[in-house]
Amino acid sequence: MTDFVNRGPVEYNGGCHCGAVRFRFEAGAVLDVLRCNCSICSRTGYLHVTVPHAAFTLLTDPAALIDYRFGTRMAVHWFCRVCGIKSFYQPRSHPDCYSVHLRCIDGEPQARIVDFDGRNWERSKERLGLG
Question: What's the pTM value of the predicted model, to 2 decimals?
Answer without folding.
Answer: 0.86
